[in-house]
Amino acid sequence: MINLKELEVWFVTGSQHLYGEETLKQVAEHSQVIAASLNDAEQIPVKVVFKPTVKSPEEIYAICQEANVAKGCIGIVAWMHTFSPAKMWIGGLKILQKPLLHFHTQFNRDIPWETIDMDFMNLNQSAHGDREFGFMMSRMRLNRKVVVGHWQDTESLQQINDWTRAAAGWHDWQGAKFARFGDNMRYVAVTEGDKVEAEIKFGYSVNTYGIGDLVKVINEISDAAIDTLVQEYADSYTLVPSLLKGGQQHSSLREAAKIELGLQTFLEAGNFKGFTDTFEDLHGMKQLPGIASQRLMAKGYGFAGEGDWKTAALVRAMKVMGSGMKGGNSFMEDYTYHFNPDNKLVLGSHMLEICESIASGKPSCEIHPLGIGGKEDPVRLVFNSAPGPAINASIVDMGNRFRMLVNEVLAVAPVNALPNLPVARVLWKPYPNMHVGCAAWILAGGAHHTGYSQNLTAENLQDFAEMAGIEFVLIGKETNLYQFKNELRWNEVAFK
Predict the structure, then answer these.
(1) Residue 255 pLDDT > 90
(2) Burial 310-319 (b: 16+ CB within 10 A, else e)
C-alpha cells in the first residue's frame, strides 16, 4: 500500500552566468555525481532526481513551477555550488508549494592544501553562496530544513532521510480522505477540532459516513471471502480454542472477518487513507471492530477510536514516514500508570485497537467481553510490544493554531506477566522522567490519544510540523518544566 520509491525529490543546484561555461560545466558534473550518490544511498528511501543548474530568475521560477505540479515530486533539495545571487530566487520561492531542504555542502570534502588556487575558490563557493541563499529564505520567513555536512557523511544522509520521510508523509496528506463512522465520543473535548481549518492547513478532508452505509457493505461480503480471511487468521495468529473451527465462538471470528472485509471494501471504494469509529455508534454491527482495525492499520491505514480524526490522520502520516523501516506505528493511548518508586512506567493500550506492526512475537487472537458499547464480545489480537526507543505524538487544536506535541520514550519489556489483560499493550518510561514528562504533556494540552512509533524520531515529526507550518513542542531527555512553561508562553505570542 505504501511504496516510497514511487516518490522523488529534485536535486537543484544554483549558480549564475558570471563564472563562464567551463565553471558551469564543472558545477553540473559535480551536481550529477552528488545527486546520483544520494539516489543510491541506502539511507534515503525515495528517488533523488538531478535537475539542471539554475542560473537566472526565469530558470528558478520554472523549476519551482514544474515541481509544484509534478505528481511524484515531494520536495526540492537545493544547493548553491557557487554564488547564486538570492534576489534571483524570490519569484521561485514565492510560488514553491513543495517542502525545501537546503543542503549546505560542497563537492570536495577536504581543502586541497598543495594545489588550491583561485580557480578552485571560484568554483567551490558553497561556504558563502549558501549563506546568501539562506538569508533570502529567512528574509521571506520560509520554513525549510538546513542540513550541513559533506554529501557522503552518514550524519548528513540520516538528516536527509529524516526530511524525505517527513516530506513523503506531508505529500500523502495532500488530497487525502478520512472516513468518520459515527461522530465524536460524546462530551469529549480533545478529539474534536476544526475540520475546515485542518483541510486548509493540512490538505486532507474528514467527512462522516453513517454506520448504515458501512453495515450495508459488510452485509454484502460473501461467505467464500470470509472463509479465506478466517484461514488467514488461523495461519497468522495463535487462535484461542473457542475461536477455532467447531469452537463455541467460531461464529464471532467469522463476524470479525466479515467486518474487516466490509471496512476494507468501503475504504478502497472511497479511496480513503484512514478512518475512525466510536463504540457509542454501532447501530447494525454485532461487535466493535477490533481485529479489523488492528489489521487495517498494519496494511497502512490510519486509525483512531472515538471519532479522533486528527490522530487517525497522524497515524497514517507516521506509517508513510516509517515505511520500509524496522518497527511499526500504531494508534495508542496512555492507559494506566505504575508508580513504583524504583520503576515508574506508563502502560499504553486501548480497548482493542493497537496495530500488530509493533508486536513482539506472534499475536494471540482472542475474544473477551467488552464492558462498553453494549455489543457482542469482540475479537482482537493480544500481544506485548518490543522494547526500545520510541515516540508518542499528538496533534491538538489549540483554537488559534494546531500544536504538534512529541514525547520521546523508552519502551521496556513487561516486568510481570499480564494473564488477565485481554488487549495489546506496551510499557514505556517517558523522558526525561515520569513526573516531568507527564506534567509537560498535560501543560501542553496533549491528547490522551497518540500516534506511537518504534521507528520514527522527534526530528521526523519536527520536519513534518515545519512543512505544515504548525507549532512543534518536544518533551525529551533535556526537558525541564521551567523552560518548558516559558516555551509554551513564547509560542503563544509567536503564533498570535
Answers:
(1) yes
(2) bbbbbbbbbb
- Residue 399's CB is within 10 A of a number of other CB atoms, namely 9
Contacts of 368 (CB under 8 A, 6+ apart): 377, 378, 380, 422
CA distance 449 to 452: 9
Could you count the other beta carbons within 10 Å of the beta carbon of residue 212? 9
Q: Please give the sequence-ordered ranges of beta strands (E in DSSP) within 286-344, or none if there are none.
A: 302-305, 329-338
For the record, the C-alpha cell of 101 comes out as: 531542504
Q: Tell me the residue length of the chain.
A: 496
Residue 489, number of CB atoms within 10 A of its CB: 10
Question: For residue range 177-229, what is the model confidence (pLDDT) as tens digits?
Answer: 999 999 999 999 999 999 999 999 999 999 999 999 999 999 999 999 999 99
Which residue type is seen at 54?
A: V
Give the Cα separation of 188 and 195 in Å (integer).
Answer: 16
pLDDT at 1 exceeding the cut of 80:
no
Quote the pTM value.
0.96
| CA dist 326 → 46, 249, 364, 454 (Å) | 17, 35, 21, 8
| Phi, psi of 306, rounded to the nearest 5 degrees | 60, 30
